[in-house]
TrEMBL record:
Its main location: membrane. It is found in: Cell outer membrane. NCBIfam families: OMP_RagA_SusC, SusC_RagA_signa. It comes from Microbacter margulisiae. This is TonB-linked SusC/RagA family outer membrane protein. GO terms for molecular function: siderophore uptake transmembrane transporter activity. Residues 45-67 are annotated as: Disordered. The lineage of its organism: Bacteria, Pseudomonadati, Bacteroidota, Bacteroidia, Bacteroidales.
């Protein structure tokens, strides 16, 4: 019979975090790990004896670490079969074996063991620690290397820590994890993936397409914005941490393997693949409640009135008509209209992920899915995200291997859209800009004697918050003053913004190991990403009641004697539909070789890469929709603004050739050489190609006999140095030649009184025919070491980047003669030097059963 055996269960309270001053977050993480194996019903004694002879028997035992403590979740598999199991919470296991079986025992952080089965019924196994920081395989550009043999400045991310953090996207999860990697948090709105990253310093003077973002590579696929051709974090932030195997950060000249796009560094993401053995099911859930501990203190209604009178009197106002009376101040003591508390509510976050993996020696599989939802403390804002990933590694024929994966994600973001009054410019109540970014400021600072709604002539109306003891401010339909803003009126009008994105990626690699040349292989990769982004902005009309006589004596508060003007605000009312359809296609071809000759170890790679991006943008604006009439269809959205609606199409492409050679002697003396050539049609044909070389060297001093004798307390010590060149093409295409703009009615005039204007061409910026790649030469000197029985590890880097011929906007560097007009295109003009140092220190130890 088939039975699902629960091998381990783990539940823990993850975080109770008190965020300084404003919010508290309570987050729970629940994780289940289930392993399955196939069992058979127990036969009779005679049958059982025959079965044991022909089909094998059952072996059991316990797996411990070098201190005798049981290990949970250790994989014990029969090599070349699908039979396997994992240890339970006590480190125990049981597995059906046959006489010819070979057991493969593996566990993260410990050395893999291969044990032939010799007929025993009990087998206890002791696992020895693997010095992971030295022997683990680290993903580098277009390949992998042992950590101890790396000659560049490459860091890896602890994904377990990243998974447990209460953050909304992967960018925020990397904050503080890697020296030299800076994360700038963006908006806290659900689904607003506006957080950015940068590696070391940013060097860019271009006005057109400069970016501080590093290049992101996911399973070999370069993540590029199809419109600008620059790095993007969009797909990176859609990843669920549960589907990520590793993240490597290339900080120095080792990023030159990616050419021009790697100038700001590279982040390489490898997603999970299947593992040999019985199916393993992993489920995790995270729950979070987000609320305010307190708000910034503001004046209550009475305090505001007293302060306003004092301020006005100090400013020379003496007319009682322009001051709050004593009766009004006494009445303010009873008023408490707190706009922020009315709008505020607790917010929740929930994340679920589940994946299953397993397989045999011939093929493995991984399937995972996740769901993430996040709410906000202010109304009508939420975000939902779904992800799916499936992949397989299979030997489909002798020496022929297929790696394939299909992934998809979908996200929907809903926001309030108070941008309908984005032109607020009177600096009222603590905010100096309109739109949804100012909502919190207005709500917090709104005087608490002003209600958000009031009974006007027997009907409850949202009111214009324009009360003033000195004047009547603006009008309820101005669209440029606080008088036309009311948070609750705008929300209830149906004004909102939705952003929906859907994408899928198919990624396949076929590798053939040449049978007659050991270590030689050829491979090809094809990846295609299709993405749609749909955006809808609904700015609906809304009605406000404006008090018109609050500038008279003893009438500065809403009373039965208040006179009202009720009006509908139609300013900026519109419906906008916009969508972007993009495709990214990438093809790679690789030749790889790795071999050893005595103490000489060499590996080499040569490759070609071709990528294309195409994008179509559609934008349609409808003006003046009728209040309450819009039903989601364009036929009810108002009148199409033809002059402000458009469709654009853009295509980009790159062609690159690159290679790498690694050499080490006795795993002690290390060298690496990288060369990449990129072509960019942004430059004139004579300057299409940029050539980017890198050389790095390393010396593992701790492998020297004299070093071990003199510094026995040092377990590992390496010195490394690198120098390499990268470049950028972050400018608008075709600035090397003269471009023109067609104007239908702005040409010359013919006839009397100016005549009729005819169509004509106007020149764009003055071209720069000799535009070429800018240059960044990166120098890095680093030291890596482990001491105290590998419990203390450190890494120290010093770097210097020399940037020359930077592409620079010339408007501030030189004036354009009035006789010429126009403006200069960018030129290779500026130089910039950057330098700095990075240090990382880690301590790992065990006290009793506690790891720290």
């Amino acid at each position: 019979m088939k039975r699902l055996h629960k091998e381990s269960f783990r539940q823990k309270l993850q975080h109770i975090v008190l965020l300084p001053g404003t919010k508290w977050v309570c987050c729970f993480l629940i994780t289940f790990l289930l392993g399955g194996q196939l069992l058979t019903a127990a036969p009779s004694n005679a049958t059982q004896s025959q079965s044991q002879q022909s089909e094998g028997s059952r072996i059991s035992g316990k797996v411990t670490d070098d201190q005798g403590e049981p290990l949970i979740g250790v994989t014990i598999a029969c090599k070349g079969t699908s039979r396997g199991t994992i240890t339970d919470v006590n480190g125990k296991y049981s597995l059906e074996v046959r006489p010819s079986d070979v057991l493969v025992v593996s566990y993260v952080g410990y050395k893999r063991q291969i044990i032939p089965y010799t007929g025993q019924l009990e087998l206890n196994i002791k696992m020895l620690p693997d010095i992971k920081s030295l022997n683990e395989v680290v993903v580098v550009g277009y390949g992998t290397q042992k950590a101890k043999n790396i000659t560049g400045s490459i860091a890896t991310v602890n994904m377990q820590k990243a998974t447990e953090l209460p953050v909304g996207n992967l960018t925020e999860a990397l904050s503080g994890q890697i020296a030299g990697l800076s994360v700038n948090d963006g908006s806290s709105r659900p689904g607003d993936n506006t957080s950015t990253m940068q590696i070391r310093q940013v060097f860019n003077f271009s006005k057109n397409q400069g970016t501080p973002l590093p290049l992101v590579v996911i399973d070999g696929v370069i993540q590029i914005d199809p419109t600008s051709g620059l790095p993007t974090l969009d797909q990176f932030n859609m990843l669920d941490p549960s589907e990520i195997q590793s993240i490597s950060i290339l900080r120095d000249a080792s990023a030159a393997i990616y050419g021009a796009r790697g100038t700001q560094g590279v982040i390489i993401v490898t997603t999970k693949h299947g593992q040999i053995g019985a199916p393993k099911i992993s489920y995790s859930a995270k729950f979070e409640i987000d609320n305010a501990v307190s708000f910034e203190k503001t004046l209550n209604a009475y305090q505001y009135g007293v302060f306003a009178n004092s301020f006005l009197q100090a400013s020379g106002v003496t007319n009682p008509t322009n001051l709050y009376s004593t009766d009004e101040l006494n009445q303010m003591k009873t008023l408490n209209y707190n706009w922020l508390k009315e709008a505020w509510k607790p917010a929740g976050l929930m994340q679920h992920s589940i994946n299953v993996s397993g397989g045999s020696q011939k093929a493995t599989y991984f399937v995972g899915a996740s769901y993430y939802t996040q709410g906000a403390n202010l109304e009508n804002q939420n975000y939902n995200r779904y992800t799916f990933r499936a992949g397989t590694d299979a030997e489909i024929a002798s020496n022929l291997h297929l790696n394939g994966s299909v992934s998809a994600n979908s996200g929907k973001q809903t926001q309030s859209f108070t941008k309908v009054v984005s032109a607020i410019n009177d600096g009222s109540y603590g905010s100096y800009a309109g739109g949804e970014q100012a909502d919190y400021g207005y709500l917090l600072h709104m005087p608490q004697y002003i209600p958000w709604s009031y009974n006007v002539n027997g009907t409850t109306q949202y009111v214009s918050p324009a009360l003033s003891p000195a004047k009547v401010s603006g009008n309820a339909t101005s669209a440029n003053a606080i008088a036309d803003w009311n948070y609750f009126a705008i929300l209830n009008s149906g004004s909102a913004q939705t952003n929906t994105s859907n994408s899928y990626t198919a990624n396949f690699t076929l590798r053939y190991d040449i049978p007659y040349v050991k270590g030689l292989s050829v491979s090809g990769q094809y990846a295609r990403t299709y993405e749609t982004d749909n955006n809808e902005q609904d700015a609906m009309p809304f009605t406000l009641a404006l008090a018109t006589n609050t500038n008279t004596l003893d009438n500065h508060l809403y009373t039965s004697s208040t006179t009202w003007k009720v009006a509908q605000n139609n300013k900026n009312s519109r419906v906008v539909y916009s969508n972007q359809l993009s495709e990214n296609e990438q093809m790679n071809f690789f030749i790889n070789y790795a071999g050893s000759f005595g103490k000489n170890n060499i590996s080499a790679m040569a490759a070609a890469e071709r990528s294309t991006q195409s994008v179509q943008n559609n934008y349609y604006e409808y003006d003046n929709p009728l209040a309450g009439a819009y039903n989601g269809a364009s036929s009810s959205a108002g009148t199409l603004d033809v002059s402000n609606s458009y469709t654009t199409k853009t295509s980009l492409g790159t062609l690159s050739y690159f290679g790498r050679v690694n050499y080490n002697y006795a795993d002690k003396y290390l060298a690496q050489f990288i060369l990449r050539a990129d072509a960019s049609t942004k430059f004139a044909p004579a300057n299409y190609w940029g050539l980017f070389p890198t050389l790095s060297l390393g010396w593992i001093a701790s492998e020297e006999p004299w070093f071990r004798k003199e510094f026995g307390w040092v377990d590992y010590f390496k010195v490394r140095a690198s120098v390499g060149e990268t470049g950028k093409d972050n400018i608008t295409a075709y600035e090397w030649e003269q471009l023109y703009t067609y104007n239908a009615n702005k040409g010359l005039g013919f006839g009397s009184n100016g005549g009729s204007l005819v169509s004509g061409l106007t020149t764009n910026v003055t071209p720069t025919p000799n535009l070429r790649w800018d240059s960044t030469v990166k120098y890095d000197l680093g030291f890596d070491g482990n001491v105290l029985n590998n419990r203390l590890s450190f890494s120290l880097d010093g770097y210097f980047d020399r940037n020359t011929n930077l592409l620079t906007q010339m408007a501030s560097a030189a004036n354009v003669p009035i006789t010429a007009g126009g403006a200069y295109a960018e030129q290779n003009y500026a130089n910039l030097n950057d330098w700095g140092a990075e240090i990382s220190i880690n301590w790992k130890d065990k006290i009793g059963k506690v790891n720290h």
